[in-house]
Amino acid sequence: MTTTTAPADGAVAPRQHTPVRRPSLLRLTLVELRKLVDTRAGRWLLITIGLVTAVIVVLQLIYADDADQTFPNFFTPSLLPVGVLLPVLGILSITSEWSQRTALTTYALVPRRERVVVAKLNAVMLTAVASVLTSLAVAAAGTLVASAIGGAGTWQLDGSLLLNAVILQVTGVLMGAAFGLLLLNPPLAIVGYLLLPTLWGVLGEMVKPLRGPSEWLDTSKTMEPLFSSDAVTGEQWGRMVVSLLVWMVLPLAAGLYRTLRREVS
Q1: What gap in Å lies between CA 247 and CA 191, rounded to an integer?
Q2: pLDDT band at 1, cuts 50/70/90?
Q3: Label partner for 103 (CA 20 to 30 A): which of 110, 148, 173, 227?
Q4: Model pTM?
Q5: Please, which contacts does 238-246 make with residues 24 or more away whose CB atoms are closer than 8 Å?
């Protein structure tokens, strides 16, 4: 039998606290991945991305010539519409903390806000890579069907095209997340992301002095080489980097600064 002897002076012995380990970045990323499908908007957006990819392949099976029903031709057309929807997912991931008033809980559990932001960025980048894998899977299914019904069914896919697809989707979703960080409001961030680059592209075509800078700052032009299986030249990479600095890196930096300083209520 074990007995506990109380302190002679009647003082209460100090309680020993077990140190609490902060959650790892991997665990935070997994939490943010789960959040993407926990909300109705995020869940339906992911479903829409999958449906759009499947519909594009079905339409090609119905209307495309047999010679054009190849694996690359099924894969490439799905990149653009999915690339338009993915940034919206990045925006929702960032802004949901403020629009759904969960920021107080999140940043109370993880006081270092930059770790939460990095986890969110990791989650949306993984989702972008998953979207490329989904496009590959649906394109493979389309190629199998095309082979069975008399289409070309060619499977050859240039590795550079696959790498370009990953770069395209990852940078796109990061651009959306950057606007979300900068504006911290879902409707405003979505409109800003869709409107500002488009408006700049229109002005670049209409205003002659802006045509030169537009070649370096209009993402619809600078990212276009990624849709081709041809090797991207050094100048094309340079234009991509400049445009991404303006539309992705700068908004990310400014948005992170704003998020770290914003009062949570």
Answers
A1: 14
A2: very low
A3: 173
A4: 0.87
A5: 239/215, 242/216, 242/217, 243/216, 243/217, 243/218, 243/219, 244/171, 244/175, 244/219, 246/217
114-136 burial, b for 16+ CB within 10 Å, e for fewer?
eebbbbbbbbbbbbbeebbebbb
The closest alpha carbon to 261, from 163, 140, 114, belongs to 114
Q: How confident is the model at residue 78 (pLDDT cuts 50, 70, 90)?
A: confident
Rg (CA), the chain: 24
Q: What 3-state class would DSSP assign to 33?
A: helix
* Inter-residue contact 204 to 211 (CB < 8 Å): yes
Q: Residue 20 — left, alpha, or beta (φ > 0 → left; ψ -120 to 50 → alpha)?
A: beta
Is the model's pLDDT at 12 over the cut of 70?
no
Helices (H), the chain: 25-38, 40-63, 71-75, 79-99, 103-109, 113-148, 159-183, 186-206, 211-217, 219-222, 234-244, 250-261
Beta carbons within 8 Å of 41's beta carbon, 6+ residues apart: 92
Buried b (16+ CB within 10 A) or exposed e, 37-68: eeeeebeebbeebeebbbebbeebbeebeeee
Q: Where is pLDDT greater, at 18 or 230? A: 230
Q: Does 107 or 255 have the greater pLDDT score?
A: 255
| 98 contact partners, CB below 8 Å, separation of at least 6 | 184, 185
The amino acid at residue 101 is: R
- In this structure, are residues 164 and 227 in contact, taking their beta carbons and an 8 Å threshold? yes
Give the per-residue pLDDT at 11.
56
